[in-house]
């Protein structure tokens, strides 16, 4: 049996390592609730898992949008997922997620994704 908390911790650790390798300043959290509490206008991008336990990624995206009233203050939101079916992509678009990345993610893929995302503010 796979412990979901272990799986999310591993995914978080790998993503953090990739971003740090690319020179990014990274803040990691252990839950969607904690993310809503700590995210600020200083964060450019929020990476989330749409299937996170507790508040899922869709609810988290809505909460982030509600927290920031000005578009230029909102961080870009990117869903990391192992499933990119059309319904999931439509749900991401509906709640204001700026892009979807299929796991696993390599350093080169993350570099390319960040460049595209920061240049165009959307990744689909």
Task: Write up what this structure looks like.
The protein has 124 residues and is an alpha/beta fold. The chain has one domain: Rossmann fold (3-Layer(aba) Sandwich). The protein is 48% helix and 12% strand. It is built from five helices and three strands. Strand 1 (45-49), helix 3 (57-67) and strand 2 form a beta-alpha-beta unit. Helix 2 runs parallel beside helix 3 (57-67). The model has no long low-confidence stretch (mean pLDDT 87). It comes from Carya illinoinensis (Pecan). Residues 1-118 form the Response regulatory domain. InterPro entries: Sig_transdc_resp-reg_receiver.
Question: Can you tag this structure with a few keywords?
Answer:
Rossmann fold, 5 helices, ethylene binding, 3 strands, 3-stranded parallel sheet, alpha/beta, globular, 124 residues
Q: Can I get a quick summary?
A:
The protein is an alpha/beta fold and 124 residues long.
Number of domains: 1
Rounded Rg: 14 Å
Number of strands: 3
Question: Helical percent range?
Answer: 40-55%
CATH C-level: Alpha Beta
Distance between the termini: 33 Å
CATH superfamily: Response regulator
SSE arrangement, N to C: HHEHEHEH
Structural class assignment: alpha/beta
Strand content: 5-15%
Low-confidence stretches: none
Question: Please, how many helices?
Answer: 5
Global geometry: globular
CATH topology: Rossmann fold
CATH architecture: 3-Layer(aba) Sandwich
Strand order of the largest sheet: 1-2-3
Major sheet, described briefly? 3 strands, parallel
Protein name: Response regulatory domain-containing protein
GO molecular function, one term: ethylene receptor activity
GO cellular component, one term: endoplasmic reticulum
InterPro entries: Sig_transdc_resp-reg_receiver
